[in-house]
Every structure is written in C-alpha cells, then in structure tokens.
User: What shape does this take?
Amino acid sequence: MYLASFNRWWFAIGVGSYFIHWFLDNLDGTLARTRGLTSERGFFLDLFLDALGYSALFLGTAFSSYSVRFPLVALLILVLLRELLMLHWMLLRQRFVMPVIGPSELPAIVLVLVVLTAFWPRNLVRVGNVGFGWFDAAASLTAIAYAIDVAVSAVRLYHSLDPPTAAPG
Assistant: This one.
C-alpha cells in the first residue's frame, strides 16, 4: 500500500495480495476444523499472522501519500486491542466474540477505499493544513465503531467475571 504513493497500480497489487491472504487464511482454518487437524500452533499462527497482516496493511497505508497517519495508526491500535480482548473472551469464558467489523469485512472495505482513492485521489476535506482522504475518513469512522465495541465488550466481559473473594480471617 505504501508503494501506491509512487504509482497507483500498487493499490491493485496490495489489494490482490490482501485478498489472497484473506482467502488462504479462511481456507486453512476451514480445512483444519473440517479435518480435525486443529492445533495450538495453528491457533497461534492464525491470530499472530492476522495481527501482522493488519499491521502491514494499516501502516503501509498510513505512510502512503494517500492518508494522514493518525487515523490509521489509531485504528490499528484499536484493532489489535480488539484482538487481545477476543483472546480474553476465549481464555476466560470459552466464547468467540467477534468485533463489529471483523476480518471478513475488512478486505471488502479496503477494496472499496482503494477504488475510491484510485478514481478520486484528492482530499475529501481539509482541517487546517491537513487534508483527509478516503482512507482517513473510513479509518476515523471505523475507529469510533471499534472504540465503542472494545469498550462495550470489555465492560461485558468484566461484569461476567467472578468478583474477588475476601481472604479468610
């Protein structure tokens, strides 16, 4: 995504690469569950490589000439916090609680943003000397949704946990 700063055709390569990752990630998990070949290593690799992929996607876009860094970096932090919270749900409550905008929706959102940016690379709005493009607008709105989702889910998990017990005596 960063290379799109130099030539917009890199958007196509970036999105194509992300879709390949997304497809293979879903195929791998589905095949492993269907065949009963799940493992702790597979679980670790799935979540770790998802976080690595999110980081590459968001940071590459954040440092391109098509975006302002703050909204995308803030969203990356929230996405990683949501991943951590999801792990806490699994560990403490044996429940898989997906975010409002999950890994299945992300490729579609990125594709739409790339198409919009390819056809309208100019800023949508300026705030002072800073111009905000499609990625910035989407990241800002998605960050708000993720912040609310993280807060609500964290409070729900906290209230579902056993309160501390008083020490005897």
Q: What stands out?
A: Helices lie at 9-34, 40-62, 69-93, 106-119, 134-160. Residues 2-159 form a domain with the Four Helix Bundle (Hemerythrin (Met), subunit A) fold (CATH 1.20.120.1760).
